[in-house]
Amino acid sequence: MEGKSVGTTIPSAQGPVTVGDVLRTTRTYTAAEVREFRALSGYPDSPDPRYLPTLLVVAPLTKLGGDINYLSGRMVWSVSRPVAVGETITAELEITRLEPTGNGTRIAFDARVLSSAEVVVSGESKGVVLLG
Amino acid sequence: MTGTTDLATGTALRALRTVTEADIAACARLTGDFGAHHISGMAGRQVAQGLLTLSGTPLLAEDGVHVTGLDLRFIAPVFVGDDITTEITVDSLDNAELAFTVVVSTTAGEVLRGTGTAKLLD
Fold this sequence. Notes:
The complex is a heterodimer.
Chain A: E1 22-28, H1 31-41, H2 54-57, H3 59-67, E2 70-79, E3 88-100, E4 104-115, E5 118-130
Antiparallel strand pairs in A: 1-3, 2-5, 3-4, 4-5
Chain B: E1 12-18, H1 21-31, H2 36-39, H3 50-55, E2 65-74, E3 83-94, E4 97-106, E5 109-120
Antiparallel strand pairs in B: 1-3, 2-5, 3-4, 4-5
């Protein structure tokens, strides 16, 4: 695979990871959390939200990024449908490239968010993992 | 915050905010993104999460707007204390299908630029 550096690993909250590994986390957002996110965003309160703001749908992907101290340079997402409040979603980041540099490690991912087996978000991201 | 009824091609909506330590903490709790550069800081300064940088963007968090795609370039970090301006511009609106450009700037210049598509829900 182009750009792949065999044997390079980076630390994560789930132990050392390398190209081909998948980081995974699951979350279910409540209406209260959606309202809190709207408040954080400066939006007026919506007492009975139907859907998660898209940024919350992809938020578990950013949690996985945080677990490896990832600083994003680019993110591309495609979202197939709205995700309802209370729907359980699982985010997956599959590492497709690791390349050590002077200041850290360049990294690329394929990104997915699933609801049960249905992919609701697919995309990719690349950036750098900062040295600790 | 403007709703979706007055949108047209060329509409530009803008939001301003100052990133605070409390915002970064709340964003970490809501997203789970406790990356060390957000919490402990980078070169001694806390870096805002990308989602926090984007969170104030008009339209993106509206319940009646389903964002179908985003393509974002993070140009420079946003630090605690930075004043950020988030602007979204409607590039096209065809029935309920929307295309837009989003730009986030600090006083030092652009920190994030991207494009997206969305569907306006009933």
